[in-house]
Design a protein that fits this description.
Order of helices and strands: HHEEEEEEEEEEEEEEE
CATH superfamily: monomeric porin ompg
Radius of gyration: 19 Å
Number of strands: 15
Number of helices: 2
Length: 271
């Protein structure tokens, strides 16, 4: 897949998105839903589908990968003061020329399951936060798509929403605790600072990084993501659709390089 062709597809999709997303769809409730989507621990059931295309992967930089992350978010009310937010990331991966002596792989990858205990109300200063355990589950259907390790660690998020702005950071750290002894151990720190602006017609412009530090190889990968999403209604179903570009600011010898593409579709189920 050629990146220039993908950029054309992305541009066409973005133009179509803007054409579909007329203010008549966007009500005040849609604006609030858009703001909730910028909050990782909001009390909103959602099912995001996030498609990422990256290239220049592998030792010879000839590999490419399409990763579709299925990321259901389910809030559970524990009592009048606390919520439990379940956030799951299940990747479906299609890659080519990434692994030496292997032409292509397709299947699911390892699952990351996060649980955030979060107060129902923000702090007096307006900060929203959540913290809890995170787990790595070796669900990969192909050994080349996963770690073959069980892992566990801690995760946390803190953010503030002021007017149209949302800003904060999400982070986790995972250590492998069991699994195939022939495979490398997992010791990974993930950090995602983010900034988002939501307009009155429920469009959100976002900038973030999804930085990972591998303590085993002592190396960073740092993609910088820019995206635009819009809350619209198709029939009776509320959705958020959009996309953007990302630039790999810091990479390893085998990780993606250059510019990638991201498309997003999120099903919304407000109470």
């Amino acid at each position: 897949m050629n990146l220039i062709k993908n950029k054309r597809i992305f541009n066409f999709g973005l133009i179509s998105l803007l054409a579909l997303s007329q203010p008549s769809y966007a009500t005040q409730s849609n604006e609030e839903l858009a703001k909730k989507l910028a909050n990782p621990v909001a009390s909103l059931i959602s099912v995001p589908f996030q498609v990422n295309y990256d290239e220049n992967i592998g030792l010879n930089d000839k590999g490419s990968r399409i990763t579709t992350n299925i990321q259901p978010v389910v809030p559970i009310s524990l009592n009048k003061d606390w919520n439990l937010i379940s956030r799951t990331i299940l990747p479906v991966v299609s890659q080519k020329d990434v692994i030496p002596n292997s032409s292509s792989e397709f299947g699911i990858g390892d699952t990351v399951q996060s649980l955030f205990f979060s107060p129902v109300s923000a702090t007096d200063s307006g900060w929203i936060w959540g913290a809890g355990p995170v787990f790595l589950l070796p669900t990969a259907s192909d050994k080349n798509l996963g770690t073959e390790k069980w892992g566990a660690g801690i995760t946390g998020v803190a953010l503030k929403q002021t007017g149209a702005w949302s800003y904060g950071a999400l982070a986790n750290h995972i250590e492998s605790v069991a699994g195939d002894r022939q495979r490398s151990d997992v010791s990974s720190t993930f950090m995602q600072p983010f900034l988002a602006y939501t307009t009155s017609n429920a469009m959100t412009i976002s900038l973030n990084t999804e930085s990972t530090y591998d303590w085993e190889s002592k190396a960073w990968t740092v993609p910088v993501n820019f995206s635009i999403t819009q809350v619209v209604k198709f029939g009776e179903q509320l959705v958020s659709i959009g996309g953007g570009l990302r630039y790999w600011a810091k990479t390893t010898n085998t990780s993606p390089e250059g510019v990638g593409i991201r498309l997003q579709l999120t099903l919304l189920f407000p109470k």
